[in-house]
Design brief:
single chain; mainly alpha; globular
């Protein structure tokens, strides 16, 4: 045997290397395969997955992964193979390719949703300004025609408000005599006014609309030429993105069962950014996924619902989450789905004892994906009442039950090597450390576990540890569910602890900033400043949000406060320079920029490319600052 580095010129190994290089070069200049040959090649690679030669099987797997979407259809067909040596490897490749595909779909749809929302907001502002302009002349004419119009409108609107108060009384609640008296008086007055001027009520409602819009006018002002350009840019981006999302959704339906199954699993672990205007906590991608699944349930082939004894082995791992979905939505096949799912869970628990490690791994992950159904069945199998603590004496599957109880994907455990079997015996401080360590190690995969810590008091009773899990959810997975749960279930605890209240408001505000809901973000940061006007983070985030809103005077105002609180913070000084620059104050911008460099900001490339500094770009003082930064970078330290 010749060890590494021992080959001599002219050796057989070197000749083999040259031959391999020649083969690679020949392959590089060979003509591309025809579609038929490409399909044959995919089928051959799938067959090669079962070869005894590990180099051949590994090369086949690598090639199939490289082909990505082109390999989906034959891989899906192969996933129904009864040959476990192929099926298990194919399932693993499909899982990874599907995850990449769904990440692409989610990214495209989130971007589309954000663009649509911002575009609708800008168009609504535009429509409101047009409505104010229309009503202005109309209202002026009405006031000339109808004496004391405002006073008459006030009586109309007061009567409407009193009527609503009466309608809001609880059933069986006695009427309020004072309310009834006032309502009777106003009704008589209003009826007399309507008799004198039949169209007066319509005019009053228009007048109320006018005053409502006028009260919002400061926030509706058009920001020069920027807003029309932004509307045009967003319209073009939406027009480009919509067909891309439609094509990706069409592929979902083209590929069918395995993709539907992956969607059914993923929709439960999507990050929550906050409630919609209708109070819906579901993220937009989850709503899209549920629409896809609703359509899918009508398209599934009949053999999914009535598989033979032989067929169930081929489809059950793909179909199980859809059977569970049919049960949860109480669909027409719910009872049939329940029988099939129970049979699948029994077979899957049996797979845990397979001599094949790949079979055992797939079974463990399937029980995780089935959530409480998988855990409950495993607890019955192991004879455990609860699996939050790991007892090695409880049997071979007790550790898996512990992972499932803490919502840890077995694959995540194999990757990060962390579990929570001893968690409840740890001290308060150790539990908090465990939360942050696991969040950093697992990243987005920590989301189900951290949510369980926040929501389930039997896993974690301490509010402060739940708060730590909420912070980890936001920082590692961009998920605000923990914040929303704590705010709704423990409002008093949040309010009694100013630091916690502040941190949660920052989490809330930053989530609004990411969603481009800047007014809501300002509201959250303002609440911090009401209690602590000189809080650095509250002022910094308020200033940065105003900078994004292109409200440069207010951005300067809050950045200047943050600057006086922490005079050496380089990012505050740099962003203050950007706000001054965009606001047309070049001298102040250059002074803040020089201060940021003095405080340690040294990214000359970013400074030269930052469009916020375009107004300074050709000034000698700016060029001198860049040259000094470049010279400092070149000089030996």
């Amino acid at each position: 045997m010749i060890g590494p580095g021992r080959l001599r010129p002219g050796s057989t190994a070197r000749l083999a290397g040259l031959a391999l290089l020649a083969a690679v070069l020949a392959a590089a200049v060979a003509p591309a395969p025809t579609p038929a040959r490409a399909a044959d090649s995919v089928e051959q690679r799938i067959e090669d997955l079962a070869r005894d030669d590990p180099f051949v099987s590994l090369q086949a797997e690598s090639e199939l992964r490289r082909l990505e979407y082109d390999a989906f259809a034959p891989l899906i067909e192969a996933s129904r193979s009864r040959r476990p040596e192929i099926r298990l490897t194919v399932d693993r490749i499909l899982d990874d390719l599907l995850e990449s595909f769904l990440l692409e779909l989610e990214s495209e749809y989130r971007s589309l949703d954000l663009d649509r929302r911002e575009l609708e907001e800008l168009r609504a502002r535009q429509r409101a300004r047009e409505e104010i302009a229309r009503l202005e002349s109309v209202v002026k004419r009405w006031k000339e025609e109808i004496p004391d119009l405002d006073s008459k409108a006030e009586r109309f609107l007061t009567r409407l408000a009193l009527q609503r108060r009466r309608e809001e009384l609880a059933p069986g609640e006695p009427p309020d005599p004072d309310l009834e008296r006032k309502l009777a008086e106003l009704t008589a007055e209003v009826e007399a006014l309507k008799a004198a001027a039949p169209d007066l009520e319509k005019k009053v409602l228009e007048l109320a609309r006018y005053y409502q819009l006028k009260s919002l006018q400061p926030t509706l002002e058009e920001r020069g030429e920027v807003e029309p350009l932004r509307i045009q840019e967003l319209s073009e981006r939406v027009a480009e993105r919509e067909p891309r999302v439609e094509r990706l959704v069409a592929r979902v339906h083209q590929w069918g069962l395995p993709v539907y199954s992956a969607i059914a699993a993923r929709r439960r672990v999507l990050p929550v950014s906050g409630p919609s205007e209708a109070g819906d906590l579901r993220p937009p991608v989850q709503i899209l996924y549920e629409e896809i699944l609703s359509e899918a349930m009508e398209k599934l082939p009949e053999d999914i619902w009535q598989p033979s004894a032989e067929e169930i082995g081929a489809v059950r791992y793909c179909a199980a989450l859809l059977w569970a979905h049919e049960i949860d939505r109480r669909g027409p096949r719910a009872e049939r789905a329940r029988r099939l799912l129970d049979r699948h869970i029994d077979l899957t628990i049996g797979d845990l004892d397979s001599p094949e490690w790949a079979v055992r791994e797939r079974a463990a992950r399937e029980l995780y994906r089935l959530e409480t159904r998988g855990l409950d069945a495993l607890l019955r199998k192991t004879g455990l009442e609860d699996a939050a603590d790991f007892d090695p004496a409880a049997g071979p599957h007790a550790f898996l039950a512990c992972l499932l109880r803490w919502r840890i994907d077995p694959r995540t455990y194999h990757r990060v090597g962390m579990h929570f079997g001893e968690y409840r015996q740890l001290s308060y401080a150790a539990r908090r450390r465990k939360i942050f360590q696991y969040a950093r190690a697992a990243g987005h995969d920590a989301l189900p576990t951290l949510r369980a810590v926040v929501i389930d008091d039997s896993l974690e009773p301490s509010f402060l540890v739940k708060y730590a899990a909420s912070k980890a959810l936001e920082s590692q997975a961009g998920d605000r569910l923990g914040y929303l749960v704590l705010k709704s279930l423990h409002p008093a605890l949040v309010l009694k602890r100013p630091q916690i209240s502040k941190d949660l408001r920052i989490i809330q505000g930053l989530a609004h900033v990411r969603s481009k809901r800047y007014a809501e973000a300002i509201e959250e940061f303002s609440r911090i400043l009401e209690d602590a006007p000189f809080d650095f983070e509250g002022n910094y985030h308020t200033a940065f949000t105003y900078l994004l809103m292109k409200n440069f005077p207010k951005a300067v105002h809050y950045f200047e406060i943050a600057r006086r609180i922490q005079p050496e913070d380089q990012l505050t000084l740099y962003n203050l320079a950007c706000a001054y620059s965009l606001g047309g104050k070049q001298d102040q911008a250059l002074e803040a920029l020089e201060a940021s460099v003095k405080a340690g900001f040294d990214d000359a490339d970013h400074m030269e490319q930052d469009p916020d500094l375009d107004p300074l770009r050709n000034l000698p003082r700016f060029r001198k600052l860049i040259e000094e930064l470049r010279a400092a970078q070149r000089s030996p330290r």
